[in-house]
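hey so i finally got around to running both of the ones u sent me last week. sorry it took forever, my laptop kept dying halfway thru and i had to restart like 3 times lol. anyway pasting them below in the order u listed, first the sequence line then the structure token line for each. didnt double check formatting much so if smth looks off just lmk and ill redo it

first one:
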Amino acid sequence: MQNLDWDDLRYFLAVTRSGSLSGAAKSLGVNHSTVLRRLSALEQRLDVRLFERFHTGYAMTQAGEELEEKLRAVAQQIELIERRLAGANTVLSGIIRITSTDTLVHGVLGPTLADFRSVHPRIQLQVVVQNTFLSLTKREADVAVRPSNKPPENLVGRRVGSIQTAIYASKAYLRQAARSKRSASDWRAHPWIAPDESLGHLAQARWLAAHIAPEQVALSADSLVAMAGAVRAGVGLGLLLCLLAEPDPGLVRLAAPLPELDTQVWILTHPDLRKVRRIQALTGHLQESLEKHPFIRRDGKS
């Protein structure tokens, strides 16, 4: 028995259960000739006939019945192990390192990642908050969720929509400005919060440079979340992402979102990782969740 091929024995058991070569072939997903070949090979190794061949099907000989009895418990154990291994293989596990900006981590990703973990509890998530692109080619991160109108060409992924930007002020600041008789529509009459030089590549920074004098900038910051905090504190007016500002009852939008400041949102990974199952699971979940987010506009939709 120790010299027998388990695959041959598996073919033998399939014939015993179905009673025919065609039935065994169907259950094993092979053709008729393969079953016949494997069965013949087993009989040659054992030097005994295991089945009598009839027009109506196959019937076990006494030797076949003895072999089937000996194999029954072994087959059950092997099939149980196979089912357990197959089940374990469907449970995703491992570490995924995600990089995103403070704005998306603060305003979007928290609940989304919590939902993902509830479905895949054996996956460990590591979130790296970084307002510039990390090098995914060096595996500093596995997945990037980025607001960018020009994502790196070496990465692959999908665009889920865009986020809008508008001018906001706090209610407290506007009450103070009204007492000073400064109109909320006269933007040049107010101090402003601006991105600092490290965020000079942003469209918000370019818009402010074109419309607001440098001396009107009361505070600059290297974080859009920090800018929203300064506007909330009453320092002045600011260009804020709507996904950060709209849910805040203490902030007031002073004008419609500026279309030229719309920023695309991308889910990206390195080409070598896109077929890794846990990466596919996360990027698919992120796409579905972000496309439903109330402050991420689907392309072509308001």
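and the second one:
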Amino acid sequence: MEITGSSMKILLVDDVQMERIQLAIRLKQLGHTVEMADSGSRALELYPQFEPELILLDISMPDMNGFEVSSKIRETYPDWVPIIFLSGHDEPSMVANAIEAGGDDYLVKPVDKIVLNSKLVAMQRIAFMRRELKQKTAALAKANEELAKLAQEDGLTKVKNRRCIDEKLQEMITMHGRHELPLSLILLDVDRFKLYNDNYGHLEGDRCLILIANILNKLFERSGEVVGRYGGEEFVVILGHTDQTKALKDAQRIQDSLAEASIPHLYSDISDFVTVSQGVYSKVPSGRESIDEFYDLVDKQLYQAKVSGRNQYKFSE
């Protein structure tokens, strides 16, 4: 039976140089990639970098016998790789000890060519199935990662969605309360966004929100900073380890970055460009507060920014 991708990476461990070289030549003639080790300790050094698909392991070695090497591999590396023991002894007790030590098969030296070839064909089938399984596992892990990412993303702007931002805020309230650290929240609203949509169209409105989200993502990319879409044309920024002084500087950075972006809004009575109003709230939480308390307090500051003329930020004194 021909096995697709039948070449295997074989780690050959034998302290007898002549036997090691002869067997390696035979394995290479069969198309396999071979790495040789002359001791058990050398085999353990080579294992993680070579990542073998089959190990041919001599039992009788001076520094560390094959049983010890096999047990160490099984103990250290959870990913199963078949081990075939090599020995000049064929007593049933040796075979039993080999299996007990984590071995999968046993060959008596000098190794018969026909027997060796048959064993290798069986191992090739296993190696092929393991490769397929690893590929499928990796693909599944990637798909799950993408699904998890999509579950946390706002579909339009690609920042965190409301559900994710709520969970993050609750986690950070608890954590900052436990360690008595300052936590800040910025809630911002795009000024006169209805007029923008009505005059430029909803597609341009979507592009405007995406641009603002991108600006916020670039401004707040450090650990402990989270950007999310609160809803509609509102965004929220969670700032971990941030007191009011730093939070106000961050609010000013948002104002400055939007001014620099100069997104045209000729139908606004605030400016010829898109602007935002911001509420800022900072506190060293006890850890017992709800997210609704934080949202309510920061929303009041946002309201003050709006009634005071928009294109500015307000904070709790």
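quick thing i noticed on the 2nd:
Residues 134 and 237 are 39 Å apart (CA to CA).
anyway thats it, ttyl
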